[in-house]
Amino acid sequence: MPEKKGEMSTNGKTNPKKANLFDHNSIKHILDESVSEIVTSKGYIEDVRLSNIRLLIGAVIIIIALFAQFYNKKFPENRNFLIGCIYILFNGILQLIIYTKEKNAILFTYPPPGSFNTTGLVVSSKLPRFSDMYTLTVASADPQSISAKPPVEFTKSVTQWFTKDGVLVEGLFWKDVEGLINEYAKETKKSK
Fold first, then answer.
1. Are 133 and 127 in contact (CB under 8 A)?
2. Are residues 125 and 31 in contact, defined by beta-carbon separation less than 8 angstroms?
3. Is residue 149 within 8 Å of residue 56, measured between CB atoms?
């Protein structure tokens, strides 16, 4: 079975996370994956409710498509049914969820166990195309909550975290992300 990047190999050493430095998506994927690992290691539990809703809507789309496939009328006659249900209604709902809730979010969390905070985190990132500037933002999952705190963010060049071979220097990246989470926690303590 192939090992995932960054996991322990059979000889006890970790495999480094390596990105293709010419591929913007590869760099962002490695960084976002690492951010998720760092945040969950700090005691935050991932909230997958939104992902589950999207999966449920996707399953409904598949069921409707199967129903349309075996419907009494063949494709040209059932075209309006397909367009109305699948493409407009359900894809519209999916796009609305992505546009209003997810935006650039890579991770939603619950509040840490034992915390007095009633809202989790939304961790989002941006890496514009043709740019090396990675922006990471930590904000409250419910900005309307009384316990919501101001968001914190940093913008840094990805060249600080990768070697010339495309290997992520996890210690440096971990330190920066952990610092941002700690800054958000300090904002929490200041406003109490």
1. yes
2. yes
3. no
How do strand 121-126 and strand 152-157 relate by DSSP bridges? unpaired
- Indicate the DSSP class of residue 70: T
User: Each residue of 50-90: pLDDT tens digit?
Assistant: 889 888 888 887 887 777 677 676 666 767 776 776 667 77
Pairing of strands 121-126, 133-140: antiparallel
Q: Distance from CA of residue 69 to its chain's centroid?
A: 34
If pLDDT is split at 50, 70 and 90, which confidence band does 187 have?
low
Q: What is the residue type of 7?
A: E
CA dist., res. 31 & res. 17, Å (int): 9
- Give the whole-angstrom CA distance, residue 165 versus residue 77: 56
